[in-house]
Amino acid sequence: MDAVSRIERTLSASLDRVDSAGGPPLLAAAMRHAVFPKGARVRPRLCLAVAAACGEDEPEASVAAGAAIELMHCASLVHDDLPCFDNADERRGRASVQKQYGAPLAVLAGDALIVLSFQVLGWGTERCLARLPALVQILAGATGMPSGIAAGQAWECEPKIDLSQYQRAKTGALFSAATMAGAAAAGHDPAAWRALGEGLGEAYQVADDIADVFAGETDLGKPVGQDAKFGRPNAALSMGIDGAMRHLARLAQMAADSIPDCPGADMLKKLTLSESKRLLPKDLSQQAA
């Protein structure tokens, strides 16, 4: 089974498992709305690619790690769209959770997805419990303080933003978690894989900045021009399109060069470089080819 199919099956099964009789139906529906239809699933695919490169020996653990990271990512999007933050009406080409179900249920759906992400880790490591503590620490570190996605969102509430810390937490944290969790799920040292995640996280942020300026809403499935609207830092606005695309190419190459020695290193390097181009809007990705 290919990586995307494994991820989708695990996500669906996880939501089915908690959507049992007696639970609030609207909360269950809001959670499912946040996760499906699928997005690009960049982070869980990266997690599985690293696990495969390391010689994946516990498939249930690695796909659980990828699914947990995706659930955490979905939770962050639900909260990001709330009226107190971006107040977004659209996400992935349809109504955001807060628009469809209201802000109270959106808050609770995001909270429940955060909890579910840790439940998934427990379910997926029943055959290799020795790997669970590292996976829990990786996911928790990418979520909370001082440099997880919650901290990244909180930087937007500060009177003065530390740009590097903001971007590292807001976008990079879950990319680092993806590479480190992929290695940990396969029984390898996760610390050696942090640099790849950090590099890809920074590259993704630059690609997202480019898309926010130059893509259409139909391409992204969400509002564009948000960085200019909210006065947020944006590489494409500060460097221009050519400068931002050169910067993206440099970051992707640095990320590929950071891949530790492992059985699938060559394959993973090629995948890293090709995926960096796929992050761009279609017209721009053809120019970068």
Account of the 3D structure:
This protein is mostly helical and 289 residues long. The chain has one domain: Farnesyl Diphosphate Synthase (Orthogonal Bundle). It is built from 15 helices and 2 strands. Strands 1-2 form a two-stranded antiparallel sheet. A hairpin with a 2-residue loop joins strand 1 and strand 2. Helix 3 runs antiparallel to helix 4 (59-80), helix 7 runs antiparallel to helix 9 and helix 9 (163-185) crosses helix 10 (194-214). The protein is globular. The two termini are 28 Å apart. 45% of the residues are buried. The mean pLDDT is 92.
Short summary:
This protein is mostly helical.
CATH architecture: Orthogonal Bundle
Which structural class do you get from the secondary structure elements? mainly alpha
- Helix share, percent: 55-70%
- Unreliable spans are none
How many separate domains make up the residues?
Answer: 1
What count of helical segments does DSSP give?
A: 15
Evaluate the radius of gyration: 18 Å
CATH class: Mainly Alpha
CATH homologous superfamily title: Farnesyl Diphosphate Synthase
Secondary-structure element string: HHHHEEHHHHHHHHHHH
Q: In total, how many beta strands?
A: 2
Question: Gap between N and C termini, in Å?
Answer: 28 Å
CATH topology, anyone?
Farnesyl Diphosphate Synthase
**Overall body shape:** globular
